[in-house]
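Field notebook, page 432. I keep forgetting to write these up properly, so this time I am using the form the group agreed on. The chain and the ligand, pyridoxal-5'-phosphate, are recorded exactly as supplied. Prediction of the bound pose follows.
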Amino acid sequence: MKDRADYIVEQVKAHHELFRDGLPMIASENIISPLARQMLISDFADRYAEGLPGARYYQGNEFVDKVELEVIELAKKLFEVPYADVRPISGTVANLGVLFALTKPGDTITVPNVSDGAHISTAKFGAVGVRGLQGVPYPWDRENMNLDIDGTIKVIKEAKPKLALFGRSVFLFPSPIKEFRDALDEVGAITWYDSAHVLGLIAGGRFQDPVREGADLITGSTHKTLPGPQHGIVLAEPKAKAMTEEKMLRKLNYGMFPGVLSNHHLHAMASLGISLAECIEFGKEYAGAIIDNAKALGQALYERDFDVLCPHLGFTESHTIAMDVKRHGGGTPLVEALEVAGIITNKNLLPWDPTDAAMNPSGIRLGTQELTRVGMGTSEMAEVAELFKRICIDKEDPLKVKPDVVALKSGFQKVHYCFHPDSEAYKYYELL
Ligand SMILES: *Cc1c(COP(=O)(O)O)cnc(C)c1O
């Protein structure tokens, strides 16, 4: 069996080389800092700690408890909220826990539409459906890639949801929330903001401040613009008239455990603590650079004849840009050609695509958070846009473009915005 194990190690090594030499531009990914990565291989990875610090079901949790309390404090400090749960093992699990805590099967919840860029967990074939809820979608303003405010107020008043969910996976511009507060209070709804994609931007004081704008609670993934380990988080500052603060927090706590968690991946939690501390130190600068790069990339692609969405709005206010590439062959063939050259992206449905277009949608979604993390700036974004043009528009053989991708990336091998910034991002693969 040793050969089978060796085979797996070889694949992981090859994967590291792919990402070391390539340009990772998937908007939901990032790389963690060397110190955060070390926590992932600690003995925390092998243990259980059910319950809460100081009230566990197992022994041996003395130091786990200290870490968990510290990570909670760091989260509360970074996001300026009175309540943080750092146990969810992913964004989807955080969402499931919230649904378990605050809804009953048959309840109505208002949601963004998947075809307008919402995440699968908000759909009937995702977490919302698992909980047996009725999801009522908000109307969408395609031109501005945002919620239609008057239509959304109407939907809220008519649907009278238990929960109103905001936030999405193609998240170019802040979601209006303040505008809905009165309507939500009128129908007794709780405001929930899924920040998975933009958590790191919010941490850096950019994009929007959902809690101050009226959200009662936030869920998120901790590995997208927040450059931490794959994990989830719940943050709350309840103010809805629907429920007392104490009751909502108690429900949220039980919703996670015993609701949807047993083991909460202690190694990832410790790693998250490092990432939160790094964010407190470097998060502002990082978030600013991500957004500058996204706008620059949007502009550079637009100038090269790509149909980047929302030029009238500066393309984006986040890490993400979206392009309609139907004119150039559609999402699928282009992301495949880009991959051959070492540029890692994903195809994406756009609001005007038919629902059965999932296999060759019109869109490509790009994120600048990881290229920014390794130190790229706006001048590199122009170089990246030129590589896109050669592959997608000039139809150059992607294998011939690949050496230029590798050459560009070779100057960007270190993780920035973290402690120990001299460590090379993919150096650890040599351990294997
Ligand atoms: C990525 C994402 C999630 C799910 O996160 P995981 O950590 O992958 O489970 C939830 N909601 C939104 C809006 C997302 O983009």
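OBSERVATIONS:
- The longest strand covers residues 190-194.
- The pocket of pyridoxal-5'-phosphate is lined by residues 28, 90-92, 95, 119, 121, 167-169, 194, 196-197, 221, 232 (CB under 6 Å).
FOLLOW-UP: compare against the apo run.
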